[in-house]
Amino acid sequence: VDVSAANGPPSRVLVRSIAARLAGEALAGVVAIVPAIQSLTLHYDPRRTDFGALRDAIGTIMATLALTAEPDVEPIIIPVCYGGEYGPDLDDVAAAHQTTPAAVIAAHTDGLYTVAMIGFLPGFPYLEGLAPALHTPRRATPRTAVPAGSVGIGGSSTGVYPFTSPGGWHIIGRTPRVLFSPTSARPSLLQAGDRVRFAAITEASLRMLMATP
Amino acid sequence: MIRVRQPGIQTTVQDLGRMGWQHLGVPVGGAMDTQAHRIANLLVANDERAAVLECALGGVALQFTVEALVALAGRDVTASLDGTPIVPWRPFRIEPGALLALHTGGRTTIAIAGGIDVPLVLDARGTSLRAGFGGWHGRALKRDDALPIGKPSPVAERIREHLVGTRRTIAAWGAGPDLVPAVRCHLSRRARLRPHGLPPHRSPTPPHHSTGNGFVRRDRRHHSAPPRRIADRADGRPADHGWLPSPR
User: Taking a C-beta distance cutoff of 8 angstroms, is the pair B61, B6 a contact?
Assistant: First the structure.
């Protein structure tokens, strides 16, 4: 379901509303409802339903859609140690915007972010709300390994790598928070629609928090 | 229990994937070759979703500490059991202490009756390598890993007992191209191994016949007829299993 061409409410609100409605209707044969930023994907078992039936069901839903307001929830605080060995690209980001690392940190911790979607890696949040002054294109050469907990800026998004992975975003800091724990009842710290704030911590705090799981 | 003697390039525990968690960024993953996965499981009377080992290429050696019923599936498989060549797409039994070696293959499924008994993580048993969870401790197998095997189904036990009773190692029946067109790739691969574990130089490729479904089949004269068939065609005619390599 592609909502990128829709007029009116932001696509995130549309996607969220459609997802909520689909979850409520529990259509037969649907095995996964996956919200993205401007679209929503339904995975279905072709032995139990078919494309036509789902297309019709979605048509009905779209025609009678009531928008789900974004909940006014308390933001989840993600502590971040900025710069140094944990944020090797902080200086580059500052230089790219002709400003200082301290100003980048101030702008990044100032923002109130919304999780647009979770993707790329389990628990990886694509966060909307990055100050335009911090929008930075991806690195010219991606790293083959970015450590788990790395906080990055890529284009107009910011996010946190839950696992060590290849990555092309500018890494400005590191959080000790675990973003994804597969054996927990609520595996992902964040879900689409959640609010997030970053808070600067010292390197000593980071080390202490990383040592105490 | 299965003791990993040689893990090969990348051997992982896989199933048919982790559905329903994509909204949290969890990839579905699972078997690369789902047909091979499902058929190998069915050959050892497992649920088709049971956890198996999936091997990339070859160089894998597994020692079994218990009796087991096993099936291999995949393309271009050459394997041996205690040095005796063993063909894919049929169940065979393994005695305690025996060494199963996968010499070459593409992505090869090794299904064991009872399945690989690893815990469910997010409703699945497959390995998510990037995120490091599921399967065997979230990683590819290493030398000396010891994998637990689940309880075989009653049908699997009957197959194994039948093999014991008829003094066979490998069943006289299996899955064929009427189930999997890709099976034809194995047809004339006579899995006789040279001492260093490489497949023999093959004789010139036999002529290929069109089967009318877009696939080609090697000349059946190069193969013996099966003693039993396990599937009929959709049009009601008996399945043509002339492709089966002779049991050995």
Answer: yes
Instruction: Indicate the angle between helix axes A51-63 and A11-25, nearest 10 degrees.
Output: 120
Q: Please, are residues A36 and A15 in contact by the beta-carbon 8 Å criterion?
A: yes
Q: Is B26 on the interface with A (CB under 8 A)?
A: yes
Helices (H), A51-172: 51-63, 90-96, 101-110
**Interchain CB contact of A123 with B (< 8 Å):** yes
Number of helical H runs and strand E runs in chain B: 2, 13
pLDDT digits (tens, 9 = 90+) for B84-143: 999 999 999 999 999 999 999 999 999 999 999 999 999 999 999 989 999 999 999 999
- Are B126 and B14 a contacting pair, CB within 8 Å? yes
Residue with tokens 């009773």: B165
- What helix, strand, coil percent values describe chain B, rounded to 5? 15, 25, 60
Structure tokens at A182: 């597969």
Task: Give the chain A residue whose CA is nearest to the CA of B26.
Answer: A122
User: B77: which residues sit within 8 A by CB, 6+ positions away?
Assistant: B87, B88, B102, B104, B105, B108, B186, B189, B191
Give this prediction's pTM.
0.78
Q: For residue range B101-118, list pLDDT tens digits in order.
A: 999 999 999 999 999 999
- Is ipTM > 0.90 here? no
Nearest CA in chain B to A191: B24
**Do the beta carbons of residue A78 and residue A177 sit within 8 Å?**
yes
